[in-house]
Amino acid sequence: MKTFLKRSGVLKGFTLIELLVVIAIIGILASIVLASLNTARQKSRDARRLADIKSTQLALELFFDSCGKYPEPFAAATLASSMNSTVCTVGATTQALSLYLATAPANPTPGGATYLYTAAAGGATYSLTFSLEGATGTMASGAHTASPSGIN
Description:
Blueprint: H1 2-10, H2 16-67, E1 77-78, H3 79-82, E2 87-90, E3 93-96, E4 116-119, E5 126-132, E6 142-147, E7 150-151
Antiparallel strand pairs: 1-4, 2-3, 4-5, 5-6, 6-7
């Protein structure tokens, strides 16, 4: 009996199998958390894209109210290059889109697709092309177009 007590008193700590099981459980939990985090980041970027497009639409409508037409780039252009490409004169002042939209929004994904702005001849209408990474609300992932009639 004395040898058993001495022996059991010396054996303190965890076995190798217990440590491996705990490490495996921690690894599984970490992978679940990282997968959820990536999904949340994707949804956040898509929400930012939609907010950028809506604020740009508002700026374009304000420009239209002041000038009677939408800005006309020379060809399909990124939104950033269209900011000062078209100006109109209202009274004694010259206005550009940058008056209503201080900086052109950029795609929240580094290296992602840029927002493409095109306008009809005469500035009667416009289209803003952008893409979503995943389904957001009622919109599917992929390319979409915003125009004066809304977002398709």
